[in-house]
Amino acid sequence: MQAVKRFINRMRSKSPWLLHFDCGSCNGCDIEILACLTPVYDVERFGIINVGNPFHADVLLVSGTVNHRNKKVLTNLHAQMPSPKLVVAIGACGLSGGIFREAYNVVGGIHKVLPVDVYVPGCPPKPEAIIDGVVLGLQKLQRLHEQPSVEKEA
Amino acid sequence: MTRTAILIACGLIAGPILGGLVSGMDRILTARMQSRIGPPLLQPFYDVAKLLFKESLVVNVWQVFCAYCYIAASSIALVLFFLQSDLLLILFVQAVGAVMLVVGALSSTSPYSHIGAHRELLQILSYEPLLVLVVVGFYLETGSFKLTSIYAWREPLLLKLPFLFIVLGYVLTIKLRKSPFDLSTCHHAHQELVKGLLTDYSGPFLALTEIAHWFEVILLLGICSLFWATNWFGMAILLVATYFLEVLVDNITSRMNWRWMLSYVWGVGLTLSLVNLIWLHQG
Amino acid sequence: MDMRAVLIALLVLAPLIGAVLCTFLRTQAVRSAIVLATGAILVVSAAFLVPLTPFKLSLASVFGLDLHRIVQVADFILLLIILYYGFKHRHLAIIALGLFQVAMLVTLEFFLVSGPTVYERVNCDQLSLMMVLIISIVGSIICYQAIPYMREHEHHYQVAPSRQPRFFFVMLLFLGAMNGLVLFNDLTVIYFFFEVTTLCSFLLIGHDRTTIATQNALRALWMNSAGGAAFILGILAVYRETGTLELQNILLPGLAGSGIYLLALALLCVAAFIKSAQFPFQSWLLGAMVAPTPVSALLHSSTMVKVGIYLVLRLAPGFAGTFLSQSVAVFGAFSFLAGAALAVGQSNGKKVLAYSTISNLGLIFACAGINTAESMIAAMLLLMFHAVIKALLFLSVGAIEQRIASRDIEDMRGLYAVMPVTALITVTGVVMMIMPPFGVLLSKWMAMEAAARNLYVIIMIALASALTVMYWARWAGTLMSDPFAGRFRPERQPVLTWLALGPLCAGGAALSVFAPWLYMGLIQPVLSGSYTASYILKAGVLENAYGAFAILPMCAVALLGLVVAVVALKRAFKSRIVPAYMSGLQTGQPFFFQGPMNQPVKAEARNYYLDSIFGEKRLTDWVNLGGGILLTLILGGAL
């Protein structure tokens, strides 16, 4: 049983599919995220695929600040992801609202709406940092699943 | 009796294993053509294993039913192929799977699913007649629809059916969801389609459709192998060359629309088939 | 009295008596009882006919009167009725064709024929038996469903006084005439029943008495009168060549070389094509859609259009190996293709069914034209399966139409939520039309393998069957297109509707399983006279020298697959149910997303009907032209 569980966990960490959602960022972070897919970084080496659809995704990458208009979209997308799932907040805006945090329509960082697993700081973060963030998230996922008591919570 | 059982088991095992390997090779090859390194060879198996153990989210329970029908039909088709059954019958069984996948996508209420489903129907419309004509070509040359007789034919069929092999190439491109015919669902069309046909299949059910697709790929490669069935070496070269060409075409062409697909595939495919069939008929 | 004669009399006359009773006893309950009883008599008589087949009867007289004389008189009365309608509506074509037929009939009966020409008036072989079973069982089921349907229909349109007596009079008469047509061997009797079906269809199509109904009914009448004219002309020519009016005896080998003889057969074929609404004569059958749905079901499945098929199947051995046979094959394949293409362009459910009927009949004609043992088997199997499944689909669409007040496929989106059982039955019907191991596909497989040596035919068949898959799959998917609706709650329908839909659905599936035995019991004996070498049944696999269709193993595996899928379906109810993907803007309400100002907006995704390619406006003229050319080819080539 334990072996099967470990096997499943390994498979999960070997094939994280990303859903990238831009909550109204300045596109700086988004360009860095997409740079990960280019031959220079080639995230497909790690089995990472950028999918366009929450039903297929394991990791939700969110860039930009959450505002009152798009927070519903964000939670909707998150609800449509089958668990186990991760949320990775990208960039200064995703972490805290960044330079927009005082704006009248802004809710703030991603954590105000969703349970964030990994924060990747930077304005924008480098592609290496983003890949590192995803990998950290996967390690967290594995840790959670190896401790059965925490699993339910997750 | 035991032979039948062994062949059935072979079909059921070979489909997913070979199919997954072919898919892995495909991804590596594609990556290399784009000067990337690409995923490990076993990546498709990791993906499917992960999907199988994800939470099952359901949009419409009929979609689950359809996913199971799809994998049932495509695995039966491959088993029938291993049992050396009637080729036309195999095509019909394979078509059941394709249709059920479409019906499943239509049973969702998402417009993306619907668009993908209708495009898939148009793809079926494009390749199905050609596939039948390829089989008719086999019959005209060997006098039989049964795989036993076709495999036992004394000379490579490619020499007599060269145009029909090209036609089969078109079918293969559509079936493998390769550019320029990856209209109904593909990894690269997020902006346009989300994931088209497969948008609302998720978790284990997506894994089922993926495995079913592997069955189909192996079936089609099996049909390709009929063109050079006299020795293993020739068959292997033909299959590798064909698949390499498919990946190449995928990487050097862009996605086209269905109007172009229908007119082009029917126009070129029917002409080539007709020429080859007349040739066989008179010969 | 001879048991066989009694059964024939019951099959032909019981509906007539029922019909007359319907007109005189005008209460609803009595009428329902009469229809039910007539149907029961038909089914039982047909069942009794099974062990007695094959047989031939002279049947010179009925109740002491000379049968020939009765038919003669009835023929003239019938033509006078048709002429009456022609004059009433001032329709020149009907009058001209009616007068022409009268003239021909006079020529035939009083100048040409001398002495007794027919010795065996009744010829009931397995093909007749198959037709009788289809007519009696499927026809009766349709009449049963018509009882609740017509009640609702008249209630909806507020028809008073009720016109149901007239309706059921014609419906029952139709069944009797059909039985007569397939049982008799005498061409003049067949001609008589041929004309009765023409008149019946005219009356049924015009039943609602709206302008469009009358118009379409008249179109059906003149077209089928043209068919009748071709038929009587064909009889004249056949009699001149062979000196006999027995359907069995005109198919003498050795005659095929004679030009007039082939022309006669070609004329009979043309009459058959008109009855079966092949291109370019499809418009009468499409116009027939205005009638209440049971009428469409009757015309499309068990009666009327099957007359043409029956005739051509009977005549096929007579023209085997001739150019006529070739051209019939091409003509049929063309109809198959054109019908399928036009069906793709339709969003009106009944029109899709209509074109699919024309298309399937085309395939049957193509098989008859290919004229080998395999193709004839395919034709007969398809005839049977098509009758059952098409009746099922028409009745389902009728039931759906009465509930949702539309016959458009777009309006049936998510029908599963409204009428789950009917939706499921309809989907099953669709599945039986396009998927193995069901019978329609079995016969399609046989047809393809038989046609493989005929290039034009096989290319058209290949294209058409892909088109067929397209329009059926689209419809099936649309019916199921509804989100999770909680518990399965069957809708309410009249008992007779369930009694019609249930048996047809189960029957279609059961027939598919028993197809090998049907083939050996019913089809092989018919063919053994004229054709050689065909399939053998080995361990549930139908096999011949170059092909094999594993019917029983496939049925078993399909059943297994179905069980697994259903179990999965049940388990899926326990999964987390989420709304479909709407770019993260789903509202929880199907088809709607959250638009500006938080207002729900409907996401419109219609089916592809490819109007610019397969639209009626675009294709009809070309298709008629093609049909016309091929028809000229048939007639000209026969000369």
Task: Set down the secondary structure blueprint.
The complex is a heterotrimer of chains A (154), B (283) and C (639).
Chain A: H1 2-14, E1 17-22, H2 28-35, E2 49-51, E3 59-63, E4 66-67, H3 71-79, E5 86-90, H4 91-96, E6 106-108, E7 118-120, H5 127-146, H6 148-153
Parallel strand pairs in A: 1-2, 1-3, 3-5, 5-7
Antiparallel strand pairs in A: 4-6
Helix pairs in contact in A: 1-5
Chain B: H1 2-33, H2 43-52, E1 57-58, H3 61-82, H4 87-106, H5 111-142, H6 147-151, H7 162-175, H8 190-193, H9 203-225, H10 232-252, H11 258-282
Helix pairs in contact in B: 1-3, 1-9, 1-10, 2-9, 3-4, 3-9, 4-5, 5-7, 5-11, 7-9, 7-11
Chain C: H1 3-24, H2 28-52, E1 55-57, E2 61-62, E3 65-66, H3 67-88, H4 92-112, E4 122-124, H5 126-157, H6 164-183, H7 187-205, H8 211-242, H9 259-275, H10 283-287, H11 293-302, H12 305-315, H13 323-344, H14 349-370, H15 373-404, H16 415-418, H17 420-434, H18 439-451, H19 455-480, H20 495-513, H21 515-527, E5 536-538, E6 541-543, E7 548-549, H22 551-572, E8 576-577, E9 592-594, E10 600-602, H23 611-614, H24 616-638
Antiparallel strand pairs in C: 1-4, 2-3, 5-6, 6-7, 9-10
Written account of the structure:
The complex is a heterotrimer of chains A (154), B (283) and C (639). In chain A, strand 1, helix 2 and strand 2 form a beta-alpha-beta unit. Chain A has 154 residues and is an alpha/beta fold. Chain A contains 6 helices and 7 strands, in the order αβαβββαβαββαα. In chain A, the strands form 2 sheets. Chain A has a 5-stranded parallel sheet. In chain A, strands 4-6 form a two-stranded antiparallel ribbon. Chain B is an all-alpha fold and 283 residues long. Chain C has a domain at 320-577. In chain C, helix 2 (28-52) runs antiparallel to helix 5, helix 8 runs antiparallel to helix 9 and helix 13 (323-344) runs antiparallel to helix 14 (349-370). Chains in contact: A-B, A-C, B-C. At the B-C interface, strand 1, helix 3, helix 4, helix 5 and helix 11 of B face helix 18, helix 19, strand 7, helix 22 and strand 8 of C. Strand 1 (57-58) of chain B pairs parallel with strand 8 (576-577) of chain C, so a sheet runs across the interface.
